[in-house]
Design a protein that fits this description.
Blueprint (H helix, E strand, L loop, with lengths): L1 H5 L2 H18 L8 E5 L7 H6 L3 E5 L3 H10 L5 E3 L13 E7 L5 H14 E11 L3 H8 L10 E2 L1 H10 L4 E7 L28 E7 L9 H5 L18 H6 L6
Parallel strand pairs: 1-2, 1-4, 2-3, 4-5, 5-6
Antiparallel strand pairs: 5-8, 7-8
């Protein structure tokens, strides 16, 4: 299902906005020398983006086929391990930051995966999910579920209340893809509307960040590197080796 969605026209368009939103959501996190765990990394669509942002990235994925694809395209030095999201093979506080992509089919699984992600996070946790309280989801329901949708989807406020109940830190939420699925197409005149209203919980894809420690002001990565140094989010990630010499010569991280 994930491969079918990521290769569709709507899926490629959605991925470009998802990558942009994830960059914005994680911009407040220091990255130099900081480790990040991506739980449920799937076929690795975000691994390169997180690595390019300057994090020391590790991914986990339970499905063998997806894990193999992720490992094949992962940046040099990035590990992709087999693990269920509700039973991670890491010590408490093993990573500075954790990104959890929700894949649980029910509320119990959702809560278990969130607790486990929080257990291994020392400084912060971001949860991404498909939003069942969004306009695109409502339009899909009214159309009789005729369009492909990457299940599962959860109501924004359910995720928010779950994280708030941990009483572990400050919450910040963003969303993207606010328009109907028929506008998830670069050729559509209404396509720009999908990037609007990021600060409101109305987009089809949401990200809620839980900061466990106070964050110091940092210079946003795109501003510090300049327009030509950090690639723009792309619908499909390119495979290939990174220029490690250039990477080491110009560290992307910032504490």
């Amino acid at each position: 299902m994930e491969k079918e969605w990521s290769e569709s026209r709507a899926g490629r368009f959605a991925l470009s906005l998802q990558m942009r939103l994830l960059q914005q959501c994680l911009a407040a996190w220091p990255r130099r020398g900081k480790s990040l765990l991506e739980v449920n990394c799937g076929e690795g669509l975000f691994l390169s983006l997180l690595w390019e942002c300057g994090f020391d990235v590790t991914g986990t994925e339970l499905t063998p086929a997806l894990r193999a694809r992720a490992a094949a395209t992962a940046p040099a030095g990035t590990e992709v391990e087999a693990a269920a999201d509700d039973h991670l093979p890491f010590e408490d506080n093993a990573f500075d930051w954790v990104v959890l992509h929700v894949t649980a089919a029910d509320g119990d699984g959702l809560a278990a995966s969130a607790r486990e992600a929080l257990r291994v996070a020392a400084r912060g946790l971001t949860v991404t999910f498909w939003n069942a309280a969004s306009l695109p989801w409502l339009c899909r329901r009214l159309s009789g579920h005729k369009t492909v949708w990457p299940e599962p989807a959860y109501c924004w406020w359910r995720i928010w209340r779950l994280l708030k109940a941990f009483k572990a830190g400050r919450l910040t939420g963003l969303s993207t893809l606010a328009g109907p699925i028929r506008t998830w197409n670069r050729q559509c005149a209404a396509a720009p509307c999908n990037a609007w209203l990021r600060g409101l919980p109305v987009g089809a894809w949401g990200a809620i960040r839980l900061d466990l420690v106070p964050l110091k002001p940092v210079t946003p990565l795109p501003l510090r590197l300049g327009r030509g140094r950090l690639r723009r989010p792309e619908p499909v990630l390119e495979c290939g080796q990174k220029n490690l010499v250039r990477c080491h010569a110009s560290p992307l991280g910032s504490a």
